[in-house]
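Support request, please re-run this one:
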Amino acid sequence: MTDTRATDTRATDTKAMRAGTADAAGGAAIPAELQRLRESIDNIDAALVHLLAERFKCTQRVGELKAQHALPPADPAREAAQIARLRRLAEAAHLDPAFAEKFLNFIIAEVIRHHEALRAERG
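Re-run finished. Output below.
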């Protein structure tokens, strides 16, 4: 006598996995919901890159203006206000404010580095 429970389980598993795609790591099927979530994450990551590129275009111009007017590359008061603002936004969005602060501090450090380089170029 054949055990139909095992056959039924394999058929159900196969049907459920057919909705997904193969996992790049091991070739195993990925559930469709996981694939949709990964695609959403990929789209969000792309948007973040484009937003950061736009932000750096603006900060590049700010750096040029600071160098032109002999202003310091860093503005601690503005940076502190921006960090406080971002922490409030993070809290409202249910994002860890400490993470948001670390993220902005990383960006600010990179912007200051660019501004210092622009200032050095202008002598």
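Helices lie at 4-18, 32-68, 76-92, 97-122. The mean pLDDT is 86.
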